[in-house]
């Protein structure tokens, strides 16, 4: 799943750069979805456009953390959430590493625009899907191992485990 979303992100960015003119809005689904090519050096909403290298480092850290945590997963919903997060982070990290103006300073290709929403790409959408999955799983009390915590059975903390061990 990660690979499918990652490839979809990269292919759509290549197509956008090849077929769209920067700054020119092109309707796709009326006014609901339009193509609008920009190069974004910052984060969402073009935040911190002068700190591209920071977002490069953050994306790399996210990728490493997700890959390391994925070893603990025993839950399909968590695997999907992490897959979407990994695909989005690696998609935008690829842009930051390989696109102009240079290594680790590259600008992310954004080209999808909804009404009253910032311009985004498939990787950004994937990160948003991951955020929704993670929020739902956390609210429902689903652990990385697939077990579900309820109010009646709280997760044991360190002091409870020591008492149970007779310490």
TrEMBL record:
One of its GO terms (molecular function) is aspartic-type endopeptidase activity. The keyword Cell membrane applies. Keywords: Aspartyl protease, Cell membrane, Hydrolase, Membrane, Protease, Transmembrane, Transmembrane helix. It holds the Pfam family Peptidase_A8. InterPro entries: Peptidase_A8. It catalyses: Release of signal peptides from bacterial membrane prolipoproteins. Hydrolyzes -Xaa-Yaa-Zaa-|-(S,diacylglyceryl)Cys-, in which Xaa is hydrophobic (preferably Leu), and Yaa (Ala or Ser) and Zaa (Gly or Ala) have small, neutral side chains. Pathway: Protein modification; lipoprotein biosynthesis (signal peptide cleavage). It is a multi-pass membrane protein. PROSITE patterns: SPASE_II (PS00855). The active site is at residues 110, 124. It is found in: Cell membrane. Residues 148-167 are annotated as: Disordered. The chain crosses the membrane at residues 43-67, 79-98, 118-139. The keyword Transmembrane helix applies. Its EC number is 3.4.23.36. Signal peptide: none annotated. Belongs to the peptidase A8 family. This protein specifically catalyzes the removal of signal peptides from prolipoproteins. This is Lipoprotein signal peptidase. It comes from Kineococcus endophyticus. The gene is lspA.
